[in-house]
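Hi F.,

I've been meaning to write this up properly since the lab meeting, where we talked about keeping a consistent format for the predictions we share between groups. The idea is simple: the sequence comes first, exactly as it goes in, then the structure tokens exactly as they come out, then a line or two of notes. No screenshots and no reformatting. I'm using this chain as the first example so we have something concrete to point to.
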Amino acid sequence: MAPGPLRGFRDYPPPEAGARSEIRRRMRSVARRAGFVELEVPSIESFELFATKSGEGIAAETWTFADKGDRRVALLSEQTPSLARVFVERAKSEPLPVKWFTAAKSWRYEEPQSGRTREFFQFNLDILGVPGIEAEADLLATAALILDELGAGGAYAFRLNDRGIAEGLGRRFGSSDAGRFFRAVDRFRTRSAAEFASELAASGVPADRTHELVELFSAVGPGVDPAHLDAYLRGLEGPGFDDPARAGVDRVRRLVARLDRIGLGDRIVFDPTVVRGLAYYTSTVFEAFARTGGSRSVFGGGRYDHLIELFGGPPTPAAGLALGDQTLELLLKGAGRWPDGEPGLDTYVVVADPSLTEEAMVLVERLRRAGTPADCDLIGRSMSRQLREAARRRSRRALILGLKEASPGALVERDLATGAQREVARDAAARPA
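Output, unedited:
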């Protein structure tokens, strides 16, 4: 028995591979339409690159090993450190703002589960050099366009929050360990009330304040929409909610207003439980989620204004997001909008007699060189089986060679959607429709 793929890895036979390829094609097309240009980085980097961003603890989920030169290297687990490295190398000559997208396989050594595999495809959008909420607005508008073009319109929404707000809530409720408080808040939707209370206590929140915080978070449900945002934000304030926290409130208000103005108000909510590892992010954070189904985010991102400096570059404001293929697949399949595969053929050339196969291949070659996706039978099937194959390949039309009723120098063109037929000259049939 042949061995299957390793645990946490997947095969993608046709038509699944074609569907994934079509999704990546659409994502790239939209990113370019929005003014992003593609950056390609190596699949293997120095482990130090990832440790610089996330610390040595990243080793637990990174595929790291010693190469033949005894250097510690790692498979790409995320693309942002590589992007930062490239930008630092080019910072003196690169005009700002920079709008880059990356699209690559990545690897993380973690427990496989629904929506999370050890090998995955990740699509990143990043904007460097824009200090205001315009960067986040452009990122989310582009992400919305990508999801809509993939057929996910109406099936998703965006949750927004800000580091200043999260830190202010920690101070307001008496937390003495910001990191633990963030981790507890980040898991609010996936923990029982008792587990959440225990995690809050570990962060220093007094037991008599836990219920108040749970009520504050529970009130948002799936999130606070723009129409009710001001009232909810006013309710967050209290002792410890100082100027940095109020600055976070102001950023959220302005970002929500901007997104609403450009037509995304129906798919954005404020959610104070979104923190996404705030040690990395510097202010705004956001994620996409499916309106129905599981609670796992479809993508996440935010502002990371200090990362370029961490890699030795000049102070550079930056924001970005990362969209993984596994959660995107769950969203699209859950909404019944997964592609059938790669686009179908335009033309399938059918022969009434196998002796015409060579002639069919000549016609197919002419069509392909004219830019028309075309194919023909190569194994001598009957005409009825060839027509079934043309339908299976989702061809727009069949060109039938060798029918006795066709005039000399002509063939029969059949519309495979309607069954309508007409006689056409071979030269005309070889031209794109």
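Notes:
The longest helix spans residues 243-261.
The two ends are 48 Å apart (CA to CA).

If this format works for you, I'll send the rest the same way.

G.
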